[in-house]
Design a protein that fits this description.
Rossmann fold; alpha/beta
Length: 253
């Protein structure tokens, strides 16, 4: 049976991606910190699922996750684990921001590299890195670290995609860049979106169509596609200022 590994699978986009992959006939390996949530999700799936609790803010946990799953015939890797922090850069907590970088960037880097080597050796497999529309913008005041982390994910994915294309590899890699999605992200970041988000279910469905269609950058909502295009055409300073105004609205009651 084909196997998919989904990080950050305990809720939101990760949980919906796991459900979609299960419906497509994949055995899903569910990974997050909250074992109880993972076990509850596993009970909902049609196919037998594996649950591996891991804290991906720790490099040794990323390596352990790979070691425990590398012989499980994983052909789809979904790097979904991640979170955000809002506030002026000089006032946000340093330790929490470093944890953000570890989860949003380092864990994605480690797991992508290790599984990519296996996929290239077999000349098959797909990697979906969950980024954000924030990663397509030049910067984000009040969420500077988060925007920077997602820009890293977008840039990393695009670079790898071109390397694979140049060698004629059948391995696919994509980055999902949604705008607001109705998940627990707000609670973790201690904010609320200024505009209405799309559903996690729709986002997951769109993401997998893009992944298996070998689309490098996947933007599931029309509004964000327009915004991303505008970010390319408009002066970076203006785009960054607009982003700052949007973030400030997230702090309003």
């Amino acid at each position: 049976m084909r196997t998919a590994l989904v990080t950050g699978a305990s809720s939101g986009i990760g949980a919906e991606l796991a459900k979609r992959l299960d419906s497509l006939g994949f055995r899903v390996i569910l990974t997050a910190r909250r074992t109880d949530r993972l076990e509850a999700l596993a009970a909902e799936l049609k196919n037998p699922a594996a649950v591996i609790a891991a804290d991906l803010s720790k490099r040794e946990e990323c390596l352990r996750l790979y070691e425990e799953t590398k012989e499980m015939n994983v052909s789809v890797l979904v790097n979904n684990a991640g979170f955000g922090i809002i506030g002026d850069f000089d006032s946000t907590d340093l330790d929490r921001e470093l944890s953000l970088i570890d989860v949003n960037c380092t864990a994605v880097h480690i797991l992508t590299k290790l599984f990519l080597r296996d996929f290239i050796a077999r000349d098959r497999g797909y990697i979906l890195n969950v980024g954000s529309s924030a990663g397509l913008m030049p910067g984000g005041p009040l969420m500077a670290a988060y925007y920077a982390s997602k820009a890293y994910v977008v840039s990393l994915t695009r670079g790898i995609a071109e390397e694979l294309h140049a060698r004629g590899s059948r391995v696919g890699i994509s980055v999902l860049c949604p705008g607001p999605v109705e998940t627990e992200f707000n609670e973790v970041a201690d904010c609320h979106f200024a505009i209405r988000g799309i559903s996690a279910d729709y986002c997951a469905e769109y993401a997998l169509k893009g992944l298996f269609g070998r689309k490098t950058v996947i933007v599931p909502d029309a509004g964000m596609k327009i915004a991303a295009l505008g970010a390319k055409l408009a002066p970076a300073k203006a785009v960054t200022a607009i982003a700052g105004k949007m973030q400030s609205k997230k702090l309003e009651d």
